[in-house]
Every structure is written in structure tokens, then in C-alpha cells.
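Field log, afternoon session.

UNIT: design team B
ACTIVITY: writing a sequence onto a fixed backbone
BACKBONE:
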């Protein structure tokens, strides 16, 4: 071989534009070996859930086509990342491996690979392609790590400067004759049964789909975002989360576009800043994950591992998963999740609170269900969201915050439109009863065609009694705490 190539390794950065590691690999002027490794073997690599596998299938197919259009080729390999990278270096005599950094437990894999490469005389170059700011650079005035979001966001705002976008390669000169798996053989798309129809109706995975989603949001839906984002009955959120999760768009691209819209007078400053604070919540989640890679498995506040969590009956868990709890706002959210791979963030909090506190089942089990069913199942955001709601995470609010599903429904879905969209059997109930059908008079239920326990379930638990049970259990795990 007259010239040794370089390897660019895709991970959670499935895009060609504003991809700093890819830009650096391309700038080397060497032939490229462009690889994606599906690692389901390394102990630090969490296996993808079903909805994420569906998304990955579509995103990789889109990415492969875009690379091919530039004269390159995407190599697919399945196996432990360390073995895949070592094999490719051996097969191609690559001189350097480029990648964008990871920040959870998987960074241990990267550290071992980097050490192994350097020991073999092969370069290893890593970049920040995932976050606005590196977690190890975000420090409090005393030099500690942030544990509360608000001061983290203030510090991030004070230091935030969007770097110039990494250029998208105009052409990709790839090394030929490198063995690649066929993506169909990975069987990422579900079969027998194929439950993904609702996902396909809702989403367009891939880099171009991400750009279109961002443009549409900034053009049509950001006006009023600061207030409207909490209303599941309104189509006000960006729905960029799965695109960010798979790195089809970078947070810096989002930041630049949002600031441009604000400065051009195309989007209200209040709404842009609120939107960017939600992007910053993702940053905060990764900050926490970096400093506690066990965050998806153990309570961030370890004392809450001592809560006397219930196992939960199979009927209760099944009712929650399938949207049959008897609490309409929760059931609407869980059905939306099952059908589309997505749930409005406000409803995620209500559903998670019900699971961890009303049912008093360890938040980890609920987090795993979301991990399997969400197209935006992100290792940092998912765990942090669950722990925030369960009261076990890094948050200034007390553990005894328990969402009342009826009051939450009335406040954030006042006309019942969200419930009616996903729980059609309650569609004819008047607004006064839509969030608490068990309290409706018998004639009202009859006129609406609702038979509790038949066409729609009775509540699986009484919220008032469940709340008291949860507070007692939480308090017993913290002898010095008082409500």
C-alpha cells in the first residue's frame, strides 16, 4: 500500500456537516476508512432499545447514501468496538483513528482504544462533536462540579461561544476493498410483528430530516414556545431530541440557527432563550453523567437506593406501559409513546412521577421502558429526567414533590384535546370530567358512552393514598429528612 489511510469512526454523530472529527480526518488528505460499529458486546455499551434500533437503521441507510453521493463508502461492522477498531487498523494499516468523544461509561472503551492505538504507534484524535461545552471544563467558582441546573445554565451562558462550523467534506475519498456488513443483516427494523408503522408516519431520520425539523420549528413554532412548550395539546416543541440523540444535527448548529433567528427578528428573544435553556438541560444531563457514569443504574443521591421500592404487580406495570392506568393524561402519554416513539416532555414527567411515586416502583424500571420505546432514548437525558422526577437526582427541589395527574391534566390540557387525541374512548366526556372520569355523574358517563372498568379502566391506585405511601417510604430512607 503506497499510502496509509486514516479511519473515521462514527458513533453518536451521524452527520457530515459540522462534524469536527470527520472534518479533521478529511483535512488530513489521506484516504478514509469510514466506519460505524454496532457494539452490543462491550460491558460499558448499553444495548439500544427497540425504537432506537429502528431509528438507527434508517439513519445509517440515509448516511450511507449521502457518503456514497460524495464518492465514499460507509463500512459497517458488528462487534466489540475495541476488536472492530483493532481489526480495521490491522486490515488497512491505518495511520490514525479519528472520533468524536463520548461522556458516559462508554468513554472507558475509548480510553482503552486510545491507549492500545498509541502503544501500536497509531494516532488517536478525538474531538467534541456532541456538546456545547466539555463537562470537564464546566466548574463552579470553588472548582467543583455543578449539581443544580440554574447556576449551570448561567455559567454556560456566560461562556458560550459557538465555534465556526466544521466544514462538510465536498468529497469523501474512501479506501476500497474493506469488508462491510450488510445493514439488513443487523435486523434493526422490527419484524414479526412490525410495530414501527406509527414511527414511520411521525419521523424522518437522517441529517436532512434533522435540518428540515430545525427550520420548520424556527419558522413556524418557536413563537410562543416559552409558554406553549408545557402544553401537550399544542404542537409547540421542536422535536429535535432524536436528531440530537443520534447526532444528525449538532447542538452548535441548533445554537447558531436559533441565535440567527433571534437577531434577524424572526423569533422572539424570550422564546429563543427558553428553547436554548432546554438544549442546556441536555448539557447538564451530560455533565452529571460524566461525573457519575452509573446514573442510569443507581440513584444519583445514593441514599434513595434504600427506599423500600415495591416490585409492582404485573397488572399495574402492564397498565402503565399500555396506557390503562385510569388516569387519562398518563394514558394519553403512554399511548402516544407506544404509537410514535415519543411523548411530550410535560407528560413524561407526569407519567414518571406516577410510576416512581404512585406505584412506588424503582425509577430504573420505568427508565428502561422509556429506553426501549423512545426514539430519543439518550443515556444522559433519559436517566436525568427520570431521576429529577423521582426525586433521587441532582435537583434543588425536595423529594416530596409528587405530581397530581388530575391537576396536571387540567392545567396543561385544559380542553382535554390531548387526552381525546390518544384516549378516544373518552372523547365525548365534557371538559369538566375528562381528567377524572371516575368523578363524573353516572348520566354523564352514560351519555359519553363510558363504562368504567369496561370501556375505560378505573384508576389502578388512589393517588391520595399512594402519595402518602411514597412520602413515608422516601422519608424512611433519609433519617434526617423532614417534609
Amino acid at each position: 500500500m503506497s499510502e496509509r489511510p486514516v479511519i473515521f469512526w462514527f458513533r453518536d454523530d451521524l452527520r457530515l456537516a459540522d462534524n469536527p472529527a470527520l472534518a479533521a480526518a478529511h483535512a488530513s488528505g489521506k484516504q478514509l476508512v469510514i466506519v460505524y460499529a454496532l457494539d452490543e458486546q462491550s460491558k460499558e455499551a448499553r444495548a439500544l432499545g427497540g425504537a432506537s434500533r429502528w431509528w438507527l437503521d434508517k439513519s445509517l441507510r440515509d448516511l450511507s447514501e449521502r457518503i456514497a453521493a460524495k464518492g465514499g463508502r460507509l463500512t459497517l461492522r458488528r462487534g466489540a468496538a475495541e476488536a472492530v477498531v483493532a481489526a480495521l487498523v490491522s486490515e488497512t494499516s491505518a495511520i490514525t483513528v479519528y472520533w468524536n468523544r463520548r461522556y458516559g461509561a462508554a468513554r472507558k472503551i475509548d480510553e482503552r482504544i486510545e491507549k492500545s492505538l498509541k502503544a501500536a504507534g497509531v494516532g488517536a484524535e478525538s474531538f467534541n462533536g456532541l456538546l456545547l461545552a466539555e463537562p470537564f471544563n464546566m466548574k463552579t467558582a470553588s472548582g467543583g462540579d455543578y449539581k443544580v441546573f440554574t447556576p449551570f445554565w448561567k455559567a454556560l451562558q456566560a461562556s458560550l461561544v459557538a465555534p465556526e462550523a466544521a466544514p462538510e467534506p465536498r468529497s469523501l475519498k474512501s479506501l476500497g476493498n474493506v469488508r462491510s456488513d450488510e445493514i439488513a443483516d443487523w435486523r434493526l427494523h422490527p419484524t414479526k410483528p412490525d410495530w414501527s408503522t406509527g414511527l414511520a408516519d411521525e419521523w424522518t431520520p437522517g441529517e436532512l430530516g434533522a435540518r428540515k425539523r430545525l427550520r420548520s420549528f424556527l419558522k413556524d413554532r418557536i413563537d410562543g414556545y416559552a409558554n406553549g412548550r408545557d402544553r401537550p395539546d399544542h404542537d409547540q416543541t421542536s422535536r429535535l431530541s432524536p436528531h440530537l440523540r443520534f447526532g444528525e444535527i449538532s447542538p452548535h448548529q441548533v445554537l447558531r440557527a436559533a441565535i440567527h433567528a433571534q437577531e434577524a427578528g424572526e423569533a422572539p428573544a424570550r422564546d429563543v432563550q427558553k428553547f436554548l435553556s432546554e438544549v442546556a438541560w441536555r448539557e447538564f444531563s451530560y455533565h452529571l453523567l460524566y461525573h457519575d457514569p452509573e446514573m442510569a443504574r443507581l440513584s444519583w443521591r445514593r441514599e434513595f437506593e434504600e427506599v423500600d421500592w415495591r416490585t409492582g404487580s404485573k397488572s399495574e406495570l402492564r397498565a402503565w406501559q399500555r396506557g390503562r392506568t385510569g388516569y387519562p393524561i398518563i394514558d394519553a402519554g403512554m399511548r402516544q409513546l407506544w404509537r410514535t416513539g415519543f411523548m411530550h416532555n410535560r407528560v413524561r414527567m407526569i407519567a414518571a412521577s406516577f410510576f416512581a411515586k404512585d406505584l412506588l416502583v424503582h425509577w430504573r424500571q420505568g427508565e428502561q421502558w422509556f429506553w426501549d420505546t423512545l426514539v430519543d432514548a439518550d443515556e444522559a437525558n433519559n436517566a436525568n429526567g427520570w431521576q429529577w422526577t423521582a426525586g433521587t437526582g441532582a435537583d434543588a427541589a425536595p423529594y416530596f414533590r409528587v405530581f397530581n395527574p388530575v391537576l396536571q391534566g387540567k392545567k396543561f390540557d385544559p380542553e382535554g384535546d390531548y387526552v381525546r387525541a390518544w384516549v378516544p374512548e373518552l372523547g365525548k366526556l365534557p371538559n369538566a370530567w375528562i381528567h377524572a372520569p371516575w368523578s363524573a355523574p353516572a348520566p354523564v358517563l352514560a351519555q359519553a358512552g363510558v363504562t368504567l372498568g369496561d370501556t375505560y379502566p378505573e384508576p389502578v391506585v388512589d393517588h391520595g393514598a399512594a402519595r402518602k405511601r411514597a412520602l413515608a417510604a422516601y422519608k424512611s430512607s433519609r433519617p434526617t429528612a423532614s417534609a
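LOG NOTE: The chain has 21 helices and five strands.
NEXT ACTIVITY: expression trials, pending approval
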